Amino acid sequence: MAKIVMIIAPERFRDEELFVTKEELEKAGHETVIASSVKGICPGSRGGFATAILTLNEVKASDYDAVVFVGGGGSRIYYTNEEALRIAKEMHEKKTVVAAICLAPVILANAGVLKGKNATVAGTEAKTIESKGAKYTEPGVTVDGNIVTGNAPKSSRLFGQKISELLKARGF
Predict the structure, then answer these.
(1) What's the domain count of the chain?
(2) 37: domain CATH number?
(3) pTM: predicted TM-score of the whole model, two decimal places
(4) Residue 172 burial by CB count (10 A; 0-12/13-18/19+): exposed, middle or buried?
(5) Beta bridge pairs of residue 3
């Protein structure tokens, strides 16, 4: 069983990208913890709510086997957030699973994690991740080494499954 930190925006995270992905991860036996820039109840963009029990500055890479950055319009606040970029870099350097969906792969690109990697993202941000050295793939879910990226809410189930497959291959 892996321990996974899921990072959401304090508001306007995309519900499916959190809840469906979380469901797939937990169905595979993994433990998930939600973090955000604030602790407490965070509203999603589709009417759902999630409770963040950690702030980003409390997230220690050594405590987790994977990180998942959840997309949605609110995730843009993390594009240049020092703590979000730190987490992405530390988790990648530690060779853990680093995942992001929808708009959130821009966080990974800005952290330098996607340089030379195949990745997908919401179509509006394809040029953004390419400008940071990523090789944009088509919509859906892309796995490259320890990195999993998804492009949209409809990819959430497959995104969760691919993260679980990668963790299983690593003995979790």
Answers:
(1) 1
(2) 3.40.50.880
(3) 0.98
(4) middle
(5) 31
Q: How many CB atoms lie within 10 A of CB 27?
A: 11
Q: How far apart are CA 116 and CA 69, in angstroms?
A: 20
- Cβ neighbours of 90 (radius 10 Å): 18
Range of the domain at 46: 3-169
**Alpha carbons 106 and 122: distance in angstroms, whole number:** 9
**What digits encode the pLDDT tens for the residues 48-88?**
999 999 999 999 999 999 999 999 999 999 999 999 999 99
Alpha helices of the chain — where are they, by DSSP H? 15-27, 82-93, 105-110, 126-131, 156-169
- Asked if 101 contacts 70 with a C-beta cutoff of 8 angstroms, the reply is yes
